[in-house]
């Protein structure tokens, strides 16, 4: 007996992959070279919502640090968003001087938010 199932709409996840790729400063050609696939395949995933194979899907989300929880479990809050994963990936590449700057920046943002709350 054939099951009647709704096909997953991959467009939102494809868009997240595109945004993550752009955030990392990668072209489709660069990503395609890393993955040894055609750039057109990546374009189809990003723009048309083409369903990739499980292996390609896994490589895309791991290379680009995309959190998929928000797409597969929309009612649950993701432990780490794609943005947080991408930021952590950038931080992992920094040396101790860079981390001092990042820490000061984060503290400055936190203090500014705290002051904003007390003013309101």
UniProtKB/TrEMBL annotation:
Origin: domain of life: Bacteria
One Pfam family hit: DBD_HTH
Keyword DNA-binding: yes
PROSITE patterns linked to this entry: HTH_CROC1 (PS50943)
Entries under CDD domains matching the protein: HTH_XRE
Domain HTH cro/C1-type: start-end pairs: 17-71
Keywords of the record: DNA-binding
InterPro entries, per database record: Cro/C1-type_HTH, DBD_HTH, Lambda_DNA-bd_dom_sf
MF (Gene Ontology): DNA binding
Protein name: Helix-turn-helix transcriptional regulator
